């Protein structure tokens, strides 16, 4: 997919010249004030929904142009926004979109399901999980919890021990380029979802899966439990021994989040405490570079050279929200995480000063609008302001025994016959086909990057 953001070169110059003016007209943020954080969040959320056309006549609710997965990230941010500010302005559009794309209760809508990767579907499952945990008002056919369960059930049915001893493939279908890869965000995403389902429902089956997925990742170069390096992908052709080691914040964030829920669910076991602390250490060192003062988050692989694609612009916002909940679920991490969220929000506020309408830029560390404009920038801006509210307010996700009343359906998704949820045996034809598709790209993928072609 990789839609490049809109680059207004001349506006960069203007922006640079207007740094002083921005300080006057910009998005003012007093990090110690709840009202100020809410105002900043409200401005970014307005910018987000202004660019969301999904509810307009002729548009499809929840489906953004050129991408499907991003709707899940967008709604996740807006559900958190609603919870922290009490602003219900966008709830109707969010709820309609969340249900519209639900398919048969598992986020495999027939319009798009034949092109999806496991990670695309997973983000919608995490958005639904967030709705359940934050007691987002029930709406429509499927309960938020059952939607998360539907994604879990359809994904564990794709667990694939036939190569590498387990793991989810990146893509769902053998004809998709990338089917030959097992990647961190798909597996780490399902790990997180399983951990959150365990925490919410107290059903040990989900915890067993979380543990199994985490341990499998640790058996491959995806996750190193000594250095706590998190890679991006491995390939099945060599039994998952070759590492695509690009460093993306959300790959770390998804493991930290899942480990934080497991830590809290297990009443503080050492295994998960070690994982949270190890992963957090690398994350804070890597994605809050010392050269920008050490407290401002940056997607280091693409921001300095301004090559972030639309997907990548969303990563640090997702990670910020996951870090905020981690600071609540693992209280010992709070003092480490809070200065990072604060420094990032202060810089982001200075970045959200574009187009004379508070458009957010891509890079927060420039402390001024950097000339980029897009929905993804607005979502990430919303995320960082809301993440501060989550952490400050110690927002604890509810569970089925602490007020959560979203209806459980442990069999959700299992009666979805519109899309096969079981891996059909891979025929030689499939293999040749996939091999053919990927052959031209494999060097690129393994050597350079797994561009998340997760939207169509
Ligand atoms: C801000 O301006 C940009 C560029 O013209 C536009 O794309 C965006 O929709 C505007 N946002 C708002 C909230 O007006
Ligand atoms: C969004 O669309 C739904 C269904 O089409 C409609 O019920 C709702 O009122 C719309 N909301 C807004 C804010 O336009
Ligand atoms: C903090 O959370 C509590 C409980 O969910 C809620 O009542 C309160 O409004 C929240 N405060 C803020 C500032 O979000
Ligand atoms: C599927 O496509 C049809 C035709 O464009 C559209 O009306 C419908 O809203 C779409 N459904 C989803 C879930 O995207
Ligand atoms: C592939 O890796 C798995 C798990 O690491 C291992 O159990 C299996 O023996 C390996 N297979 C081959 C052919 O090397
Ligand atoms: C955590 O502690 C609570 C209260 O003592 C207990 O009910 C629960 O079973 C424990 N959870 C686990 C996973 O051991
Ligand atoms: C789980 O999270 C809650 C809410 O922040 C916290 O009070 C509790 O101490 C956490 N449990 C553990 C074992 O740290
Ligand atoms: C859960 O509780 C809220 C308020 O307490 C209520 O509005 C909602 O309808 C309940 N949801 C379900 C599924 O019972
Ligand atoms: C726990 O979750 C598993 C997996 O979805 C399900 O099969 C089982 O019925 C659930 N148990 C309860 C008590 O809900």
TrEMBL record:
Residues annotated as signal peptide: 1-26
UniProt keyword list: Glycoprotein, Glycosidase, Hydrolase, Membrane, Signal, Transmembrane, Transmembrane helix
Enzyme class: hydrolase
EC numbers: 3.2.1.101
Span list, region Disordered: 396-424
Compartment(s) where it occurs, according to its Swiss-Prot or TrEMBL record: Endomembrane system
GO terms for cellular component: endomembrane system
Protein name in UniProt: Mannan endo-1,6-alpha-mannosidase
Provenance organism: Byssochlamys spectabilis (strain No. 5 / NBRC 109023)
Biological classification of the source: Eukaryota, Fungi, Dikarya, Ascomycota, Pezizomycotina
């Amino acid at each position: 997919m990789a839609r490049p953001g809109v680059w207004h070169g001349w506006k960069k110059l203007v922006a640079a010249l207007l740094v002083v003016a921005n300080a006057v007209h910009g998005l003012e943020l007093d990090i110690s004030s709840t009202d100020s954080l809410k105002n900043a969040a409200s401005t970014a959320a307005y910018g987000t929904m202004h660019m969301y056309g999904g509810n307009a006549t002729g548009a499809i609710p929840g489906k953004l142009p050129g991408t499907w997965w991003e709707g899940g990230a967008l709604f996740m941010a807006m559900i958190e926004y609603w919870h922290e500010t009490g602003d219900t302005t966008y709830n109707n559009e969010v709820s309609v979109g969340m249900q519209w794309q639900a398919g048969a209760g598992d986020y495999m809508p027939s319009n798009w399901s034949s092109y999806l990767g496991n990670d695309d579907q997973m983000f919608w499952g995490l958005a639904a999980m967030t709705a359940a945990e934050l007691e987002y008002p029930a709406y429509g056919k499927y309960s938020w919890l059952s939607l998360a369960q539907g994604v879990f059930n359809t994904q564990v049915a794709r667990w694939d021990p036939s190569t590498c001893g387990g793991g989810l493939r990146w893509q769902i279908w053998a004809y998709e380029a990338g089917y030959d890869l097992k990647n961190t965000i798909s597996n780490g995403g399902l790990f997180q979802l399983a951990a959150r389902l365990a925490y919410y429902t107290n059903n040990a089956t989900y915890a067993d899966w979380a543990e199994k997925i985490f341990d499998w990742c640790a058996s491959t170069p995806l996750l190193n439990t000594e250095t706590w390096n998190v890679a991006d992908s491995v390939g099945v052709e060599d039994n998952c021994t070759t590492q695509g080691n690009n460093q993306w914040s959300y790959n770390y964030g998804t493991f930290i989040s899942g480990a934080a829920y497991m830590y809290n669910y297990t009443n503080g076991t050492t295994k998960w405490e070690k994982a949270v602390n190890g992963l957090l250490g690398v994350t804070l060192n890597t994605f809050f570079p010392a050269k920008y003062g050490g407290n401002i988050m940056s997607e280091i692989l693409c921001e300095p050279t301004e090559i972030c694609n639309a997907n990548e612009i969303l990563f640090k916002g997702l990670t910020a929200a996951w870090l905020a909940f981690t600071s609540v679920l693992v209280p010992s991490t709070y003092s480490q995480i809070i200065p990072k969220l604060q420094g990032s929000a202060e810089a982001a506020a200075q970045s959200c000063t574009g187009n004379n309408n508070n458009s957010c830029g891509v890079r927060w560390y420039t402390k001024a609008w950097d000339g980029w404009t897009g929905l993804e920038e607005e979502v990430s801006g919303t995320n960082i302001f809301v993440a501060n509210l989550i952490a400050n307010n110690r927002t604890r996700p509810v569970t089925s025994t602490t007020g959560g009343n979203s209806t459980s359906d442990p069999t959700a998704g299992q009666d979805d016959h519109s899309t096969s949820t079981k891996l059909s045996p891979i025929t030689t034809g499939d293999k040749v086909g996939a091999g053919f598709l990927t052959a031209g790209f494999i060097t690129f993928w393994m050597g350079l990057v797994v561009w998340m072609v997760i939207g169509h």
